[in-house]
Design a protein that fits this description.
The structure holds 2 protein chains of 2 kinds. Chain A has 2 domains: 141 residues, Response regulator (Rossmann fold, 3-Layer(aba) Sandwich); 83 residues, Rossmann fold (3-Layer(aba) Sandwich), CATH 3.40.50.2300. In chain A, 47% of the residues lie in helices and 13% in strands. Chain A has 10 helices and 6 strands. A 6-stranded parallel β-sheet of chain A has the order 2-1-3-4-5-6, sandwiched between helices. The longest helix of chain A has 15 residues. The radius of gyration of chain A is 18 Å and the shape is globular. Chain A starts with a strand and ends in a 10-residue tail after the last helix. Chain B is of the alpha+beta class. Helices cover 64% and strands 11% of the residues of chain B. Chain B has 14 helices and 10 strands. In chain B, strands 3-2-1-5-4 form a 5-stranded antiparallel β-sheet, with helices on one face. Chain B is rod-shaped, with a radius of gyration of 47 Å. Chain B starts with 11 loop residues before the first helix and ends with a strand. The chains are: A alpha/beta, B alpha+beta. Chains A and B meet through α4 and α6 of A and α11, α12, β6 and β7 of B.
Chain lengths: 235, 555
C-alpha cells in the first residue's frame, strides 16, 4: 500500500511516518502544505492520501482553515482512484458531510480524529478499508449524532441491535463488514437493514451496491443530523 | 404750510417749529409704519401729522376755513390716542378707549360750537386778534382737563406696571407728560388771557418739545436695545466660557432673568407626562394665561426643552427675547448633550470593565476545566507509566501480562484525555463556526445538547464577528436553559431582519427568568450590548422563556 502523508505539524508528520513504516506501510511521500501535497500526490500516484484538515496552523492569520479539505476535493477531481483519509484534531459532522458529498459517485473516503494515531492497528485497518473503496467515519461523530436528543426520536423505533447496525452503517462499514463485526450472516444484516429502512424511511440505507456506500453513509448521517421540525414550545 | 406762509413777526424757531412739527411727526410715523415692529403706531403718527395741518386751513376762506376751524384741535385727540396706544398702537381697556373717544369729541365739538356761536373769521396770523370768547375758554379748559386726565392715566399706568415694562416705556411716558404739561400751560394761559408773546412762546415751546423729544426717545430706545444686545452677547459668551455652570437650572434662570431684565422670569421643564416642573423640581401650572404674563417655548430640533414664563412686556422686545431664548436652547441642548455624552462614556467604561471581567471569568473557567479534567487524566497516565516502569524493573513472574494491562489502561486514559481536550478547545472556540458558519456551529450545539433542541438557521450575509457573538449568545442561552429552565425541549431560530441578525432561543421551561435575577442573563446582555445589539427576554412564570438577541449586521 503506497501512502502519501500531508500534515503541517512536523511532530505528527514524523510520528505517523515512523509508525506506519514500522508496520510495513509504504510511505512514498510527505508534504506539509497544499501545493506540495498536490505535487507529491501527482508524482507518486499513491493508493491513499492521509490529509490533515487544517494545514495552516503555523500561519498568523488563520482565517479559513480547511485547506486539507480543499486539497482532498482537488485530488478527488483529478485522481478519483486515490483514497482519501482526513485526520483531524476536530471531529465535526459538517466536515464529514462535506467529504461524503464530494461527487456524484464518491468513494474511498475516511474521516478520523487524531487520537486514532494512538492505535495504529485500527488506523491501518481503516487504510485498508478505504483502499478497497470503502468509507470510514469516526465513531465519535456517529456517537454524537446517535445520542442527539429529539422530541420524537425515530431511533426509538429501532431495537438496540438495529441501532448497533445503523451505527456501523454510519461508520462506513459494508454489509459484509457489519456481519463480520456482529458475528452473523450477511443475509441477517440485509434483513435488518430493510427493516431499519422501513422504520426510518431511509431508502439509500438498503442499497447494497458497494459503489454507493458513501451515499448510504451520507444519507444516514444526514438523517441523524436532521433537526427536529420546528414546533411550538407550548406545553 | 403754503397757506400759513404769510405769517410774519415771529422768531424763526417759533415759525419753523410750528410748521415743521407735523412733517416731522409724519416722517417718524412713516418710518415706524415701514419698519414693522409697530406699524399701527406709525399709521397713527402719520394721521396725527396730517390732521395737525388742518388748523392751518384757518388761513383760507370758505369751506376750507370751516374745516380748518372745526378740526383745528383734532390732532390733540389723535395725540392722546397715540399716547395711550403706545407702544402697541392699540388701546387696551374701556377706560383708555372712552378717554380717547371723549378727547376726540371734546377737541372737535368745542371748536364746532365756537364756529357756530362765535362766527369767527379767517386768521392770517396765529394767536393775534383772538377774541377770548366764552366758548374759546370752554374749549381751552376742557382741553386742559383732558390733558390732566391723560397725565393721570399715564401715572396710573406707571404705578401699575412692572419694572420690565417701566424700563423701555418710562422715558416715553415722561416725554408725553412733559409735552402735555406744556400744552396745558398754554391752555391755562389762553383761559387767563395771558400776554400774546407768552401764548406764542408756549405754543412754539410745545412744538419744539415734540421735535426734540422724539429723537431723544429714539436715542434712549437705541441705547436700551444696544445694552440689551450686549447682554445677550454676554449671555452667549458666558455659555461659551462656562457651559457647566449654566447646566444648573437655577443659574440658567438667573442668567436669563438678568439678560432680559425681567426679575419675575421663571424657567420650567416639561416632563414626559406633559406636566411642567420648575427649577426646584416642583410642579407648576402654565396652562392658564395669567394676566400680564407670557409663556415662551424653548425648542431644539423640534423638541420642547423648556418653557419660560415671563412678563408679557418682553413680547415688545421680541428680537432680543428670541435671541436669548435661542441661546438658552443652545445651552440646554449642550448641557443635555454633555450629560448624555458623560453618561455614554460612563456606559462605555462600565461595559469595558465588564468585558474585561468576562474575559477574566472565561480564563478562570478554562483554567478550571483544564485542571479538573485533562490534567487529572495526564497525571493518571504518568502514574500508570510509573507503574509500568516498576513492573519492568521487578521482572517478576507474569510480568508481560501485567505490563500489557497497565499500558492498555494508560492508553485508554490518554485517549480520553485527548477527547476531553478536544471538547474543551471546541468550547473555547468552535472551529466549525469559522469554516462552516453559524448554522453548522449551532447544529453542533444541538448535537451535544442534553435535551431536544430544534435548530432553524437562515443563513445571511453576516460578518464573522456577528456570527461569533450570535454563537456565544445561543450557546450561553442554551446552557442557561439546561441549568435553570427545567425545560424538556428548546428551539433556536436565527433569521435576518432589517439587516440585523435576530437569534431567538425558546424553551418550554418554568420561565420567570429576569436579567437582574442572575441566571447569567446579565453577562449575556453585556455581550450583546457590547457589539451594539440588544437583548429582549420574555419569561413569564410557567410559560417558558424566550430570549431574543438582535445584532447589527456589522459591528
Amino acid at each position: 500500500m503506497r501512502v502519501v502523508i500531508v500534515e503541517d505539524q512536523g511532530f505528527y508528520l514524523d510520528l505517523l511516518t515512523d509508525g506506519l513504516r514500522g508496520r510495513g506501510v509504504d510511505v512514498v511521500g510527505r508534504a506539509d502544505n497544499p501545493s506540495e501535497a498536490l505535487h507529491v500526490i501527482d508524482k507518486m500516484a499513491p493508493d491513499l492520501a492521509v490529509l490533515d484538515i487544517s494545514l495552516s496552523r503555523t500561519r498568523i492569520n488563520r482565517v479559513h482553515d480547511v485547506e486539507g479539505l480543499q486539497v482532498a476535493e482537488l485530488v478527488r477531481a483529478d485522481y478519483p482512484d486515490v483514497g482519501l483519509l482526513m485526520l483531524s484534531a476536530y471531529v465535526e459532522p459538517a466536515y464529514a458531510q462535506r467529504l461524503l458529498a464530494m461527487e456524484a459517485t464518491p468513494r474511498a473516503v475516511g474521516y478520523l480524529g487524531k487520537e486514532h494515531l494512538g492505535n495504529l492497528d485500527e488506523l491501518i485497518d481503516a487504510f485498508h478499508r478505504i483502499v478497497r473503496g470503502g468509507t470510514v467515519i469516526d465513531s465519535e461523530i456517529v456517537n454524537q449524532l446517535m445520542s442527539r436528543h429529539r422530541v420524537e426520536d425515530p431511533l426509538e423505533r429501532l431495537t438496540p441491535y438495529q441501532r448497533r447496525i445503523l451505527r456501523l452503517v454510519a461508520e462506513g462499514h459494508s454489509n459484509l463488514g457489519i456481519a463480520q463485526r456482529l458475528g452473523c450472516k450477511i443475509s441477517n444484516v440485509e434483513q435488518h437493514l430493510s427493516t431499519i429502512f422501513d422504520k426510518l424511511g431511509l431508502s439509500q440505507v438498503a442499497n447494497h451496491d458497494r459503489r454507493f456506500m458513501n451515499l448510504r453513509v451520507l444519507a444516514t448521517l444526514t438523517f441523524l443530523r436532521s433537526t427536529d421540525r420546528p414546533e411550538t414550545m407550548g406545553t | 404750510m403754503v397757506i400759513s406762509g404769510s405769517v410774519t413777526g415771529l422768531a424763526w424757531w417759533e415759525e419753523a417749529s410750528a410748521r415743521l412739527v407735523g412733517v416731522f411727526v409724519t416722517v417718524v410715523g412713516v418710518v415706524l409704519w415701514i419698519r414693522r415692529p409697530t406699524p399701527r403706531m406709525g399709521q397713527l403718527m402719520v394721521l396725527c401729522g396730517a390732521v395737525y395741518y388742518f388748523q392751518h386751513l384757518r388761513a383760507a376762506d370758505g369751506i376750507l376755513f370751516t374745516i380748518g376751524f372745526c378740526l383745528a384741535y383734532a390732532w390733540l385727540g389723535v395725540t392722546a390716542h397715540l399716547a395711550l396706544a403706545w407702544p402697541t398702537g392699540t388701546l387696551e381697556g374701556w377706560i383708555d378707549r372712552s378717554y380717547v373717544i371723549c378727547f376726540y369729541f371734546v377737541s372737535t365739538s368745542t371748536q364746532i360750537i365756537r364756529y357756530l356761536v362765535d362766527q369767527p373769521r379767517p386768521l392770517r396770523v396765529r394767536h393775534l386778534a383772538q377774541v377770548n370768547t366764552l366758548w374759546a375758554v370752554v374749549g381751552s379748559a376742557s382741553g386742559a382737563v383732558m390733558g390732566l386726565l391723560g397725565i393721570a392715566l399715564l401715572a396710573h399706568r406707571w404705578v401699575g406696571s412692572t419694572p420690565v415694562k417701566r424700563r423701555p416705556d418710562g422715558p416715553v411716558w415722561t416725554a408725553l407728560v412733559v409735552a402735555a404739561a406744556v400744552k396745558i400751560a398754554e391752555a391755562m394761559a389762553n383761559i387767563l388771557a395771558g400776554p400774546a408773546a407768552l401764548l406764542v412762546t408756549l405754543d412754539s415751546l410745545f412744538y419744539l418739545t415734540v421735535i426734540v423729544l422724539i429723537p431723544v426717545l429714539y436715542l434712549i430706545r437705541w441705547l436700551y436695545r444696544k445694552s440689551a444686545h450686549q447682554r445677550v452677547v454676554q449671555l452667549l459668551l458666558d455659555l461659551e466660557r462656562d457651559l457647566e455652570s449654566l447646566a444648573d437650572p437655577a443659574a440658567l434662570q438667573q442668567a436669563l432673568s438678568q439678560t432680559l431684565g425681567d426679575p419675575t422670569l421663571t424657567l420650567a421643564y416639561p416632563l414626559d407626562s406633559g406636566e411642567y416642573v420648575d427649577i426646584h423640581g416642583k410642579h407648576v401650572n402654565l396652562e392658564n394665561d395669567a394676566p400680564g404674563r407670557s409663556v415662551t417655548r424653548v425648542q431644539r430640533r423640534g423638541r420642547l426643552v423648556a418653557v419660560i414664563d415671563h412678563d408679557i412686556a418682553l413680547q415688545e422686545q421680541r428680537q432680543m427675547t428670541d435671541a436669548a431664548v435661542a441661546a438658552t436652547g443652545l445651552a440646554m441642548e449642550n448641557t443635555r448633550l454633555y450629560a448624555s455624552m458623560q453618561e455614554h462614556l460612563e456606559q462605555i467604561r462600565i461595559s469595558r470593565l465588564r468585558l474585561a471581567q468576562t474575559a477574566f471569568d472565561e480564563r478562570q473557567r478554562i483554567q478550571r476545566d483544564l485542571h479538573d479534567d485533562a490534567q487529572q487524566r495526564f497525571v493518571k497516565v504518568l502514574m500508570l507509566l510509573g507503574k509500568t516502569g516498576r513492573q519492568l524493573a521487578d521482572g517478576s513472574e507474569g510480568m508481560p501480562a501485567d505490563v500489557a494491562a497497565t499500558v492498555r489502561d494508560a492508553h485508554a486514559e490518554l485517549t480520553d484525555a485527548v477527547r476531553v481536550l478536544r471538547e474543551l478547545t471546541q468550547g473555547i472556540y468552535p472551529a466549525v463556526l469559522l469554516d462552516h458558519g453559524l448554522a453548522a456551529a449551532v447544529e453542533n450545539l444541538a448535537d451535544r445538547a442534553p435535551l431536544p433542541v430544534s435548530v432553524t438557521v437562515i443563513t445571511g450575509q453576516w460578518s464573522k464577528h456577528v456570527e461569533i457573538t450570535a454563537y456565544f449568545v445561543i450557546s450561553e442561552a442554551l446552557t442557561n436553559v439546561y441549568k435553570h429552565a427545567d425545560a424538556t425541549r428548546a428551539a433556536v431560530r436565527v433569521r435576518e431582519e432589517n439587516q440585523q441578525l435576530v437569534a431567538e432561543i425558546t424553551d418550554n421551561g418554568r420561565g420567570g427568568a429576569y436579567p437582574d435575577a442572575g441566571f447569567g442573563l446579565t453577562s449575556l446582555r453585556h455581550r450583546v450590548e457590547g457589539v451594539g445589539g440588544r437583548l429582549v427576554i420574555h419569561s413569564e412564570p410557567d410559560k417558558g422563556t424566550t430570549l431574543v438577541a438582535v445584532l447589527p449586521r456589522s459591528t
